[in-house]
Each structure stands twice: as C-alpha cells, then as structure tokens.
Amino acid sequence: MSMLTVENAHTYYGNIHALKGINITIEKGEIVTLIGGNGAGKTTTLRTISGLLKPREGDITYEDESLLKYKAHEIVYKGISMVPEGRGVFARLTVTENLEMGAYSLSNKQDMGNNMERVFNLFPRLKERRSQLAGTLSGGEQQMLATGRALMADPRLLLMDEPSMGLAPVLVELIFETIEQINKTGVTILLVEQNALMALSIAHRGYVLQTGEIVISDTAQNLKDNPTVQKAYLGME
Amino acid sequence: MRTSFGERMLDLIVSGFLWGIRILIVSVIVIGTIGTLRTGQYTSEQWIDFVVFGVAQGSIYALIALGYTMVYGILRMINFAHGDIFMTGAFGAYFIATWLTNTGFVDANPVLGLLIPILFAMGIAAAIAMLVERIAYRPLRGAPRLVPLISAIGASFFLEYAFRGFFGPGKYAYPPIKALEGSWEIFGIGILKVQIVVTIAAFIMMAILYFIVMFTKVGKAMRAVSENKDTAALMGIDVNRIIVSTFALGAAMAGAAGVLFSLVYRQIDFFMGFTPGIKAFTAAVLGGIGNIPGAMVGGLVLGVFESIGPSLFLEGLGITRPYQLKDAIAYTMLVMILLFRPSGILGERLTTKKA
User: Residue B254: its pLDDT value, please?
Assistant: First the structure.
C-alpha cells in the first residue's frame, strides 16, 4: 500500500477547473517531484493534499485513510507538513516563535526542544538569528526557517512548494542537499519545483503536470532522458 | 502618467485645504493654551487632577481599545459591537455587585468585592462576544469587508435593544465600594482613591493581556493567524478556535473595563457602551490599529487630551463651557489621525504581503 494516493482529484478555484483528475502515488521513503510550468497546478496539488483546498471529485488516501474528512489543521496531526510557496514565514514573529508554531501540533514540550535542536543542527544560521524577527531574514534564511518550521512537527510526509524560488544558485544547492539529508532521516518528500533539473537530480520519481493534468510519470532518470521533458523543462534542444 | 492641468489644480487645492486645517488646529491649540495660561484660573494642583483623571479614563479606553485592535489584527474587521460588549460586562457586574453589597460582603472584603464583579463581567462579556462571533461574523468570513462591518453594526443595535428590552431604558446606580471613597494624599496632592484603583487595575489587566499575547502558545498562535491564516492552519493551528479566543480575550478586557467605568461614573444603562466604544475605537486608531501597545498608548493619550483639552485649549478662546466639548476633542482627533497619519502613533505602514 502506498503512503499517499491521490486518485482522480478535481480541484476548482471558483469556476476555474485547476486540477483535472490527477493521479499521484507516493511510496514511503521516496522523494517524488512534481514539475511543470506556471499555472500547471503544482501548488494547487499541494494545497489539495494539505487540506487548504478540497477536491470536488476524487479521493486522497494517506496511510490507508481518506484525508477528505479532515481540515487542514487536522491533517498536520496525521504527519503531513508543508513548506508553503513563497516560504510564508511569520514575519513579525521571531525565528524561535516561528519554529514553536511549527511544533504547534506536538503535545510534549520536550519533543519541541529536541526538534528545535535538530533544526538548529541542520541550519546553524537559524540558531544565530533565533531571536530576530523572521521578516528581517534574507530569502535563503527564510527558506531555511520555513523548512525547519515544517520539520518541527515531526512529519512523515513533507510537502515542499518551490523551495528554490528566488534563491541564489549556491543557496539552491544547499537547500537541495538539505532536502536529501531530510529524506535520509526517513521523511518522505513531495517536491514541487520549477527548477526541474535540480529536482530531478535528487528525486526518485517525478510527474510532469500540464494545465491541470499529469502528462508524464516516470523515474527521475527516465524523465531526465525524455526528449519532451528535456525540451520543455530542462531547457535543452 | 501625465496629469491634466485641472487635476494638478485640484491636488493643489486639496493639499492647501489640508494644510489649512493643520494650521487652524495648531493655532487653536496654541492660542487657546496661551489664553488659558495667562488668565491663570487653574492651579497646578487642578492641572494634576485633570491629568490623573485623564489617565484613569484613558486606561479604561485602552482596555476597550485592545479588543478593537486585536480583532482588527486577526480579521481586518472593525467589531463595532465591541462597545456594547463592554456594556454587557457592566450589566453583569452590576447585579452581582449589588447583591454582594447588600449582603455586606463588599464592606467586609473590599478586594474580593472588586475582583468578583470584574471576573464575572469578564466571563459574561467573553461569552456574549463568542456568541456574536459565531452568529454574526463567522458565517460572513470571506465576504467583502463591508458585509461584516454592517453585521457588526447590526449586532451592536441588537445588544443595545435586547438589554433595553430586558432591563428598561432607565439608569441603574452602580453600587460604590465604601473602601474606595475619599482620596489618598500622594506627594501632598489629594487623588481620588477610585481613580488610583481603576488605573492600577487597568494596567494589571493590560500587563496580563500583553503577557498572554507575547508568551503563551495561544497568544503566539493569535499573532501567527493575524499574519496568515492558511499558513497558520498548516502549522496545525485551528484558526477558528484562535479567532474565537481573540474575541473572548478582547471582550474580557472590555468587560473588566465596564466595571472600572461603572466605579468611576456610578451609573449604567443599555446605551453606555456607545460613547466609550467610539472613544476606544479612536484610541485604537490613534495608536495604530492592529497594534497592541499602540492601543494602550492611544487610550492614555486620548484620555489625557480629553481631560485637559477643554480647559487648556478651549477655555482660553473664550468658550464658556468648554467641558461640554470634550467629545468634540476626541472626534476631532479621530478625523485628524485619519487625515494625516492613518497608521497611528505606533503603527507601521502595513503592506499586505511582507515575507
């Protein structure tokens, strides 16, 4: 049984049919990437899984249970965390407070302390800035904070929405290395990316999304070798 | 973009008009102040009296203003029923305070005699605010911003006339606490005990609220929700519960303010929330709406201005009963802030997307 199955999901924004029956499966321990252009429905897919949007049709099964009956904040308790698009750190909260909010679903203060220690080990920069307001951090630091904040909840499945957006190439590499590192600790990852080359270099499998539909689904290696993908998303002729 | 000559002329006229208002206000204040001080009809002790009363009154405004500013911070909505929530707190406290006074409990235990009605008022106000949120605001979440505003005005009328229906249009005498009669000598100046106690009580309440918002889990969640509801939900925060808690906390402060107000003015009626409500709203705007320390500062500034303003600014202009105009001072301040510094004293210029 797969960890997460998205089955024939149709999601709408008002009258706009944003997801037209997509199917995605994620196995435990994988890094799966979702690539596609602007407006293809990548973010919509993540928001549908995390419960911020509800599909009008179809089902989402996570660990043998449908997620549709749960609200977004309840889904966090199931072990799914999300790093939202554009990072979405709480600008007027300090770094520590942001991380505490990430651990909101934990009932044990001890766990929160341990997780914070772990996040600080992963991102030493955050430790230096822990009493600073998140709004004063640089883009890269905010991405670290958003990632660390999602890890605070001890997720088994981590949804990441364009972690490389707007970052300098050095930072992009750092973030992708961290994603692999997080994956090695046993966290399954669904990664949405415009930077398809980077995403495919760390992912096991990938889906190509085009105007709300999955057009190709394959292993990351095959996708990299696929001429259509190369042409449309990897910038190769 | 090129603007036509007419548009530029219009801009010039408008800004000239606004400058005219500024100059007018400043000259009224300066000429009035000089005029008053030259006649020397008030002793310095009287001025101190004005300030002390202003601080007591202002701390009550500040307590109410916190509710406006917190709800605005989290929902970007002005809860115009908030002044009436303050009234419900005062009414709730009235009955229990009367009962406790009649049984002689208040005379025997003045501290508890003050605390019990305050706690009771906080509870009632919080409960009613939670109901109002559930019935009048939550179903309209996501509607255009004008819609909940109208609903708030409706809720305000509903509370006023429901209380009028239950308790009649007359005024009720709020039972005084004997231990708070008279005055204390501080640095050789006699200050009414009730003003000192009201001020201290209000400051304690504000400190408690500030502690809750800054340092508790629910307080941090309130701040997170006020920045971004979706992201807050992704943290596992039940956004609706936090919104209700915000209403309850703000209302509890207003309920406590209702008791303190009643101790100063000694009478309550169904319409008593209207004026303090608008004053507190003014205080919240003055301090920078959405900003909690701003609401506290705004309340105090407004209270003091209102208290010394009539005598200091207006009497010197030859106005015979300036105290009648104290409300005009408050509302003039509101209009001035909205015109010249909409972000308030402590307010930052809020951009919608920051991070």
Answer: 94
